[in-house]
Every structure is written in C-alpha cells, then in structure tokens.
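Hi,

I'm pasting everything inline rather than attaching a file, because the server keeps stripping attachments. The sequence lines come first, and each chain or strand is labelled.
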Amino acid sequence: MADDKLIEAKAVSKAFAGVSALTEVDFQLRAGEVHALMGENGAGKSTLSKIFAGVLLADAGAVYLEGRQVRFLNTKEAAAQGVTIVSQEFSLIPDFPVAENIFLVDEAYYKKGFISNKNAMVRETYSLLKLFDMETYIDPYEHVRQLSVAQMQIVEILKAISKKARVIILDEPTAALSANEIRLLFDLVRRLKAENVGFIIVSHKINEIYEVSDRITVLRDGRLVLGGVKTTELAQTDLIKAMVGREVNNIYGVKAQTAQKFHDKKVIFEAVNICDRRGYVNNICFQVHEGEIVGISGLVGAGRTELVRCLFGADKCSKGEVIVNSKPIKANTIRKSMKNGMGFVPEDRKFDGLFQELSVSFNIAITDLIIHTFMFVNRKSQDRKCMQKAEELGIRLNNPETPVKSLSGGNQQKVLLAKWLLLEPRVLIVDEPTRGVDVGAKAEIYAILRQLAARGVAIIIVSSEIPEILGLCNQILVMREGRITGRLDAAQAQEELIGYYATIG
Amino acid sequence: MVTTEKRAAPLQRTLREYRSELAMLGVFLLFFLIMSFISPYFFTRQNLMNVMSQVSSNAMLAIGMTIVIITSGIDLSVGGNLGLSGMIGCMVLMNTQNIFLGVMAMLLVSSVVGLVNGFLIGYLKMPAFIATLGIMQVCRSLDYVISNANTASKFPEAYGFLGKGKIADSFPIYIIFIIFMFCVFIWILSKWKFGRFLYAIGSNAEAARLSGVNVKLNTLLAYVCSGLLCGFAAWMMTSRLMACDPTYGSGNEMDAIAAAVIGGVSMSGGKGKLAGTAIGVLLVGFLRNALNILGVNPFWQGSVIGAVIIVAVLAEKLSALQLKK
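And the predicted assembly:
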C-alpha cells in the first residue's frame, strides 16, 4: 500500500517568528482520493497546504512525493512535479483570455520558445473543456475578468490539469460559489479523482466535506487531532468537536422563531419598489419589524448583494425608496442612511470592509468619526470606546494599534460589526456574515446578531449558507434574477423549499 | 472570554509606531556626524544655513506630496505649480508693489491649480499620475506664456522678510516658517478628522466610502492642500531671491517625491508620516551638500540620491518582511 501514497508529510513543523504554526504533523494523500483538511482559522491548514505547494518551507520534518523526499523551494518547482494549489487569490491574469491563462508558461505553446501560438492554446483549451463537458460553460476566448468566481476556479483547475498535476490543493474552493456551481466543481473533482488525481480540500463547510471527501484530517493549534479518518466513519458532531476542541451542540443555537411573533411590533425598516440602475434588482418590497431578523437567500448572481447595497445607498436606486422608522429616505446616500440609523457590513471584508494596514481602533472608530466628530479627533477617547466595543464582542487584542490585517477572519468580521455597533444602529444589514470564518467564531457572531435583535435592532442578513439562514432568520426572502420569488416564515422554511424558490419557483 | 492583556507602555508604543522614522533619523544623524568629522566646513553656521535655504521650498512641496501620496495619489504638478503661481504672484507684486496682493495672488493661483487636480482625480476619477502630468505641462507652459520668458523682479524691499528676514539678526524666519508648517500639517494628519480620512482613503477607498467618508471631497481637498503648499514654496523662493524666473520649480516634483519616499511614506497609500518626510527633506539636502563639499563631480549626484531612495525603500520592505516572519 505504501506505493500508492501520493504525497506525504512526516513530522512537519513550521514556526513564524518563534510562534509555532505546525508541530510534527503527519499527513498522507492517496492517489484518487479527496482528503479534507479541516480545522479552525489558525489551526495550520493553510500552512500545511502551502508547504505542500512550495509557498513555504518546512522548518523540520519531510515531505515525500510518491515515496521520494522533496523540498519545493517555490510553487514553480512544485507545479513541475505535479503539485498545484488553487487558492482564493487567483493566479489568473484578468485581461487575458482563458486559453492564454491556461498555457501562459507552457513552453510547448510558444513557437521558437517566445512567439505565442494562440490558436494551439485555444484548440487545446477547447479539447480540455470538452473532456469535462464544459465547452458550453466556458469560452476559451473569454477574458478572465468576465468570468464568475466558479468559472475562474475551474480555469485554475484546468490549468493545473494541463500541467499534468497529480496533487491539487483546493483552498476554500466553494466560499464564493452558488449551489449549482458547487455541484459543477465537485463533478469535475470526481472525474479527475477517477483518473487518479489526488485532492486536498481545505474548507469550513462541513456539509460539503461530507459530500465530496473520502477521508478527513483535522488540525487544531498546529497539531494533528484526527489523522485521515474515513469520512463515512466520522459523525458530524465528532468532527466539530475535534475542530473546536469542545462540544458545540448547535452552532446556530435554537431554531429561529416564527416571524408572526413580530407582526404586532413596530415596522423599523421598509423597502418599497426598489430597483437598481443596472437591472439586477427588480421591484423589491419587504418589511422588517423591531427585533426581527430577515434573511435573503438565493444563488450567487440573484441580485442579493446588489439589493442590500441599494438599500444602504452604496449604489444608487433607479426607483423606489427606503423607509426607516416611518421616515422615508429619498435619494438615498450612505451618509443619509447612517444618520437614519442604518449600518452595513459588506460581503468582501478585504476589499470593501477593512483598512488592512491601519489599526483596529481606527477601523472601528471611522463611523463614529463621521457622525460624531466635527473636526478634531480625540485619540484617547477613541481608543477607549473602541476597546470597550471590541471587548463586548469578544475581539481578543492587547493593543488597539494592532493592524487589523493581523487578526483572524472571525475577529476581522467582528471589527466590522463593532464599527457599526458604535453608532447604535436601528437597522443592520450584514452581507455574508460568516464567510471565511471558523466554526467557533461563527457561533459567536450568531450570538452577537441574536443579542442585537433582542435589543430591538432590525437585522437583514444575506447568506449563501442555507443552514445559517434557517437557524438565524425569522423571515426568509428567496431571490432569483432580481426578484423575490419566495417569502418563507421560519416555521415553514426548509432547505428544499429555499432551493426550489431559488432555482425554479 | 476576553483577554485584554496589559497594554504596552506608552513609550514602547511610540517607539514601535515611529520605528521607520527613528531608523531614518539614526541614519541621518550618523551621516551628519561622519560628515562633520570629514569636513571642517560641513558643520558651520554658514553651511547649515545654506543647505536650509536650499531645501526650504522642497520642504513645502514634500509636505503636499506626502499628503497626496497618503491618499495613494501623486502630484507631479508641484514644480509647475510653484513656477506658475510664483510667476503670477510676482507679476502682480511687480505691477502693484503691494505685497499683500502679490502673496494672495500666489496662494490663490496655487490653490486653484490644486483644485483642478483634485477635481480631475476625486470627481472625474482620473488616475492621479496622468491628471497631474497634464496639469504640470499646462502650468509650465502658462508660466512662459504669462512671463514671456522674462524674469520678474523689482519687488518692494519688505517682500524679502520671509526669505531673508532674521529674528534678532541671527535666526532666519523661513526656518521657523518651515517648522511651523510641518507642525500644522502633522497636527492635521494625526488629529483632524480630515487627516484620518486621508489615511482611510489611501488604505481602502471603497471601505472608506462604505463607512460614509466623502471620498471625492476629501481627495479634492488633499490636492488643494498640496497646491496651496506650492504657493507657499513659491513665496519662500521668490522672497529669498527677490526675483522670479519662469524656470523656477522645474524638476522639483522629483525631489519632493524622493523626500517622501525616503521618509517612509508608502506609494500604495495609507501609510507614512510627515516626521519621516522632514527627515527625508534634510537627508536629500545635506547629501547634495556633502557631495559638493567632498568635491564629487556633480554628475554623480543623481546616482547617489537614486541609490539612497532605493536602499531606503528596500530596507523598509526587508524589515516589514522580517516582522511578518
């Protein structure tokens, strides 16, 4: 059996500035298997996958590829030997066509070594796509910029395949994908599996791991907790326990209460006939009562993000208005929304949410500066306020001046919440509250949102994770092609029903 | 659940916050010390005053440059703006013999140039490099059109007070003025809401917008500041030389960028301090001076300044990498 081990780590350790990220971890991937690598943020999953892919070098221990010891100094070396990583930060060039991206560094497609042979690239890309029945899904001539996240991911995988990759590491592959796209991706994974390619999947989404993986390895604080257990032999509760290190009964808490309970409460927020300018959002109307949590579900591209951005005034509406506290806000802008007690946590933390290299304190204080500061900043009171909010939300820091980029995903998300909570909002809109956040922090964020609702804040959540919507929301709106196709009460909502409205209903 | 560890001592925090500025200061002092030993002329009152007067206008430009670079922009028009506003102001001064009118014209013209830059960049979303490159050319050309390539002079004697005046017949007023301007803008950048917003915009403009920052207006104001400071630079320069030539200010944008970059201001925005820029201004000025004193062929100056820029940025990058690891 030893010879069918594709890639193997033996007692691998890695430390950053004296803080150990991995301690003597063993890991084996067999040919033709999908091996899930799980753990909370900071558990060492990415460190291990980066060592495999040649991004990082191990401090101690050894990596074996098909029995031979290897030591990849960079990703190019790793790729040459058939180990490729597909990470969230795509290594694709946005303004190049798909075909050129796939064969960018493939010498065989350059005449005399330097003149690119685009026709051959396109031909080969087409036959690759055809091999996986995707020739209608992706056009070899299309510029990568025009592709959806799922398509980009598939192009990345095809790129790896074109280099004869035998080990493909998928880092959080489904974070930005819709259910349909996930199915497509997993189909591709299964086909390649049959051709003896091995996959390592790093993911937080437990349901998917059970769907696609053969074995599971769990890391915690850089140590091995479960090593290569067969997926079929591992109960979900045991998996979560292994990841978190304690019992987490139900991270969503008790099931959300029916929206009927809120019907005699005051309407805090109302959207009337909202349309956006680009046609992604069509005549949306809904109400949120005091203390109610409304979830917006649907596939990626259904117009959910576009809708909430319009509600907050981040994008302009072409029609319709928002009513907060029975006060209509005409020609909504971000500042008008803020003054009327609205807050908005955007979908993409890194690009739309955080000032990466600025301090945690500043990241939290900015909303307060806008509303309550006329001209001069009092840093001391700012720090004090921010630290207090941070502590309330359980953000662990020892210095308010810590740059926000050094925090974990969960804590970064809490910073974004904290910055709006500083203004005591009446309406809070949260787009994908737990994307890229580990199980433990997820539970904490849910608790924060529930507490806010209990204090009477009207909350609107956009989420691609259906269990999250089901666990948290009193009322669920399902969107498809810019319209609300289904309105479900928590009491009647089911996963299948949401799926039905999101696709056909 | 919350583990708020003991905060680092204030002194330690300051040290950490000003790490790169302190490192630059150390390098500068070391250089200063070595030069003082090598050349008896270097550390003389005469020489120090010389250098200070040479760097005075660059100091103004570098403040403005730092402000716009913090917003992740750039202002290539500072040299041209200095020339144009100086020329218009001086012609007003020459023809009216009214110092107040002359200075006002200077500051007004420079602010308007800044306003145009800011409007193109903040509201019309033009890349700062292109917009200010265009405005630089326009300024330079208008400078010649208006002056007809003649030098303006014959100013009232009192106009020299900023450039040549001395307190108690010994300490130059312009040095006090430079220090004052640095203090004002350090205060604005660190304590004003406006200053904090500039860092936010430079760090992540979209996040700033979604947090409610008026990105357009604040960007515009940053360029107005930079423009206004060109006016002050022009004032200092023409008041020292008691004349205005249409060539004034040409190429000065490069020294201003160099000073900011050597001082640790990040070209990608959101990072950097005026204290660093001040050291950068001094370092560039004294380096040029040292090369002159040592009798190095002036053709070599560019190579040395260029090498210093590259080494300074490289050192910053390497130490950032070190911290990460």
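The longest helix of chain B spans residues 215-241.

If the labels don't parse on your end, tell me and I'll reformat.
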